[in-house]
Amino acid sequence: MSLPLKLFLATLLGALLGLERESSGGRSSSTAVSGIRTYALISLMGALAGVFFNSQARNLFLVTAITVCGLIVAYYVVGSLITKRSGITTEISLVFTFLLGVIVMTEVLSIQIILALLVVVLLILSMKARTKRLMLGITPQETESFISYAIIALVILPFLPNRGFHLQDIPTLVTILDGYNIHLGALATIEIVNPRKLWFIVALVTGIDVFGYILGRILGNKKSFTMASFVGGFISSTSTTQSLAQQSKRSPVALVHTLLGAAVAANLASFFQVFLLVAPLNPQWLVRLTPILLIIIVAAVVVSIFFLTKKQPEATNGEAEKAGEQKRIFSLVSALKFALLLTSVKLATKVCLAIFGQSGFLISSIIASFAGLDAIIINLAELAGKLITFKTAVLTFVLVNATNLLSKTVYSFIQGNRKFAVKFGAAMAVIIGSSLVGYVILF
């Protein structure tokens, strides 16, 4: 860009930041001096400092930078004495505005990144009222929950080994079994556990609880559970469903229908994911599978809306008091139990696949569906129209999807409230029934 255009752009970006600050009404009119003109001038001064830097006039650059920083410090000191405030959001935004002008002029970053930074800063500054509502009433127990999750996801997870441990890795096991003339064969290479994958399930389940809680403080429980669950369903609908099942034990009866609607929404996301998995691998099979998928999606949407719009039962006084006292955002023990349960199911699945092999393709696929559908769908997409017919591939999908949904119901009985599990099972039965009827009619 030419020099005049850079100066204009820097001034414009500073004015946008000033517009947000002025519209937020952070200070009373008697003390507010930082608005569109102030921010535009500071950004322009940053651009001029950038001109001095590019021209090797480093002394002028330092004088300009020190002058602006000195004015911002003085502004903070005077403002603190007058308004008795201690926040420095406005001052930090002023420093950022000056740096923005420097960056525009020196072209250290591309214009796309500069605009992205501006949007992020505007978003952060505009969230003042929402963050106040979010922080209002947060207890020490809830703060401990946030810190605990940070430890789970940011401290423990990255440092766990991302490698699988197999039967043959158990010290002296192969030697002992050989002594009894027992040979593991293909079972020796089966992965028993991968520490990072195991802990990732724990982080995912607890993370959905934390994400849903934060959205709940901003949007309300019904919207937050549905949004968080739909997003979580693209990652793991099984883990998301079990997170909601665990919440059904800790939440009042009045929230059961909301949790059920959110759980169905999580599985709805997984059905959309099938399109993304199959389309690049086997478009021809996707064309034949689409009618069944649309039937399943419509059934899931109807069931989810039914639960979300259903009138909630009134919570009893005891339940209301219990909910009011409930500040624990997630249960680490429950998440760990589910992770171990899912890992055990996956291990059993791998053993069965090793025993049955490709000769028992349908049986192996149904067994594997207890652990998840992604690998099965990819396998079906690669085989459909080649080693198996399109019709057989569609039938296999319908059956493994039914088994997968039933397995989530079983997990819900283990992890959640009985009322939640029963109604979730009925919802899954509706979706399974619609897929079977659709297959019979269409094929």
Report on the structure:
With 443 residues, this protein is mostly helical. The protein folds into two domains: 3-126, no CATH class; 140-159 and 194-442, no CATH class. The protein is built from 18 helices and two strands. The chain has a two-stranded antiparallel ribbon. Helix 4 runs antiparallel to helix 5 (111-126) and helix 17 packs antiparallel against helix 18 (418-442).
Query: Main beta sheet, described?
Result: 2 strands, antiparallel
pLDDT < 50 stretches = 26-32, 315-326
- Series of secondary-structure elements, N-terminal to C-terminal: HHHHHHHEHEHHHHHHHHHH
What class would the helix/strand composition place it in?
mainly alpha
| Beta-strand proportion | under 5%
Helix content, binned percent: over 70%
Strand order of the largest sheet: 1-2
List keywords for this structure.
2 domains, 1% strand, two-stranded antiparallel ribbon, 443 residues, 77% helix, mainly alpha, elongated
How would you concisely characterize the structure shown here?
This protein has 443 residues and is mostly helical. 77% of the residues lie in helices and 1% in strands.
